[in-house]
Description:
- By secondary structure, the protein is of the alpha+beta class.
- It has helices spanning 20-23, 25-34, 157-174, 190-197, 204-207, 209-212, 242-250, 301-332, 348-361, and strands spanning 40-45, 54-60, 63-69, 75-79, 94-96, 99-101, 108-110, 115-117, 136-142, 145-149, 177-186, 221-225, 228-234, 255-261, 265-270, 273-281, 287-295.
- It has nine helices and 17 strands.
- A seven-stranded antiparallel sheet has the order 1-10-9-4-3-2-5.
Amino acid sequence: MTTPFDADLPLARAWTLSADYYTDAAFYATERAKVFRSTWQYAARREQLAEAGQFVTLAVAGEPVLVVRQKDGALLAMANVCRHRAARVEPRAEGKASRFRCRYHGWAYDQKGALAGAPDFEGVEDFDQCGIQLPRYAVEEWGPFVFVHLGTPAESLAALLEPIARRTGLDKLSALKFGGRKVYEMQCNWKIFCDNYLDGGYHVPTLHPGLAKVVDMDGYHTILDGEASLQLSPLRKTTGERLDAELNAVRSGDAAHYWWVYPNFMLNAYEGTMDINIVLPLGHDRCLCIFDFFFQEVGTPQAAAYIESSFAVAHQVQLEDQEICEEVQRGLASAAYDKGRFSVRREAGGHHFHALLAKACT
Length: 362
């Protein structure tokens, strides 16, 4: 049983979520139902589902999902779980198919999830093949992205992400091209990664010495907007070491837009580049961090060099974040710690996150 969080306290008087929100395995089960199965979750890039028959598979807090483009252009999301013995209907991460065949006993499903064949099922009484259908989920597109919702959405995906479109520009983001993916498994609760992301740059001067030379901390501020928050940071030019030059090259423009959308979607936009971060729980003390990178130009030698530099910068920052996040997980398990306070100047985004999550899990 987790310690209650008082979401009504103002930031200046508030305490963080208590340690048991991060260390209690039972609370993870609550989160799966009340957070991840009750929110829009990033599923794919739109280009992965551009043609009829193209599909992607994913897991939302352990729930297997299959998304496929229909012949009429619509998207359909459904459970990637065979109705016979619960193996996956489609084991591949992505591809193209006219139907899906479970590799366990050969049950086949069409693109709409209807059972199309069940070998050796003659003589089974009260078995109506025409009535067997994979359960369906809500699915929507927004700019270059596709999201799914395993429950009943309280609002559309467009409404949820409207702050990003209004403040950063959907057309600008949609024009960028996919440049690659990096994946990291971390030994910490997924919320620690979000807390670290949402601390208003508080940790940048001490943990990210390279990034600190580019980010203008004096002008760094957080804007709360619905179930999203924007950390807006002016950027400055630096000279010096090779990493400084790489940072200036791949993290350019007047300002960085660091978006977080409840509960686990992050979007970082610079001039001509963007990366999205998705953090997915693997348990109460492990998570998977997925980074997808987008650029103005891909496919040329010059673009390849630029992308390589961008990956190098992001990888260095992620290693620094991963080390501290895993250290925090160990500290939260200590009898010496229960909960902490928020910096009024820096941590409005973290307080906003804690309030949203505590409200959902009450």
